[in-house]
């Protein structure tokens, strides 16, 4: 069995991110309490929504994408590749799903290793050869092994609660009241909390993609094949109509490559630039061979 060393950099970043988020969230709640804002029911709703997201997130993602769990009889090569990879790293085999779309992509979802699902699009299966597909599947298995979905779901708790306060707090502002300052201050603090949480979760997301690339390449021993897959996926998507890409843009955080690249600076992006990821994989290839 092939062992992948724990990435201490990823662990340290996640721990630091949660510490910072907890401090920001503590300040946020303290300010609300100081001004006497009755936000407890709203916060409880936010926590409830995150718990629902955690418990049935895999089902929501599969339902929203139209991806369908497939059997070995339907996609024998996909199952064979996955079987070989999970045996190498001692991971329970996830369910496999296919999303029927010409957009070449893949994603992993699920709240735990035991409930994980790896999904690929039909466009990806038609685009890649077996070794390139193996590299993509290994990348998604690395996400599962590193519990990336759980980390991002928990990190999103802070921004979700702040978003609810920010979004619905305006309903407490009344033109007939002389003093709305407490509610307005609460909304401003919620905006700051949401923005800080947003930046931190995006930073975690970008770093975890680098780690999944590296671990996926280690699992297969073929960094060049994953690099080739990323190049093919990126090149193919550049030729797909923007309207079609917009239809799956909400899945960017899950996809191995975003359907539509982030138009803002890299600090706001869910993924690092494809060119940077390919460069790192090529450097791995040179070190191996």
List strands and helices in order, with pairings.
Elements: H1 8-34, H2 40-65, E1 68-69, H3 76-89, E2 95-99, E3 106-109, E4 117-121, H4 122-127, H5 130-145, H6 148-168, H7 181-220, H8 223-237, H9 242-247, H10 274-288
Parallel strand pairs: 2-4
Antiparallel strand pairs: 1-2, 3-4
Helix pairs in contact: 1-6, 1-7, 2-6, 3-5, 5-7, 5-8, 6-7, 7-8, 7-10, 8-10
Quick structural gist:
This protein is mainly alpha-helical and 289 residues long. The chain has helices spanning 8-34, 40-65, 76-89, 122-127, 130-145, 148-168, 181-220, 223-237, 242-247, 274-288, and strands at residues 68-69, 95-99, 106-109, 117-121.
Structural write-up:
The chain contains ten helices and four strands; from the N terminus they run ααβαβββααααααα. The mean pLDDT is about 80. The protein has one domain (about 10-289). It has helices at about 10-35, 40-65, 75-90, 120-125, 130-145, 150-170, 180-220, 225-235, 240-245, 275-289; strands spanning about 70, 95-100, 105-110, 115-120. Helix 1 (about 10-35) packs parallel to helix 6. The longest helix is centred in the last third of the chain and has 40 residues, at about 180-220. A four-stranded mixed sheet has the order 1-2-4-3, with helices on both faces. It is mostly helical and about 290 residues long.
């Amino acid at each position: 069995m092939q062992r992948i060393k724990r990435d201490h950099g990823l662990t340290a970043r996640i721990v630091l991110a949660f510490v910072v988020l907890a401090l920001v969230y503590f300040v946020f709640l303290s300010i609300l309490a100081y001004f006497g804002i009755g936000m407890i029911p709203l916060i409880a709703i936010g926590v409830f929504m995150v718990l629902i997201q955690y418990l049935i997130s895999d089902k929501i993602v599969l339902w929203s994408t139209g991806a369908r769990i497939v059997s070995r009889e339907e996609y024998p090569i996909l199952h064979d590749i996955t079987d070989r990879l999970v045996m190498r790293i001692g991971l329970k085999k996830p369910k496999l799903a296919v999303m029927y779309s010409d957009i070449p992509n893949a994603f992993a979802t699920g709240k735990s290793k035991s409930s994980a699902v790896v999904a690929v699009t039909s466009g990806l299966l038609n685009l890649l050869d077996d070794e390139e597909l193996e590299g993509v599947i290994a990348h998604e298995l690395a996400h599962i092994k590193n519990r990336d979905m759980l980390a991002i779901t928990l990190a999103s708790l802070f921004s979700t609660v702040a978003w609810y306060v920010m979004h619905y707090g305006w309903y407490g502002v009344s033109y007939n009241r002389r003093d709305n300052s407490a509610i307005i201050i609460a909304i401003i603090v919620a905006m700051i909390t949401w923005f800080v949480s947003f930046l931190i979760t995006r930073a975690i997301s970008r770093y975890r993609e680098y780690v999944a690339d590296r671990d996926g390449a280690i699992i297969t021993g073929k960094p060049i094949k994953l690099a080739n897959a990323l190049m093919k996926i990126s090149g193919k998507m550049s030729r797909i109509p923007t309207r079609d890409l917009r239809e799956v843009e909400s899945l960017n955080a899950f996809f191995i490559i975003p359907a539509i690249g982030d138009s803002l600076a890299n600090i706001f992006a869910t993924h690092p630039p494809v060119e940077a990821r390919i460069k790192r994989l090529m450097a791995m290839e040179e070190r191996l061979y």
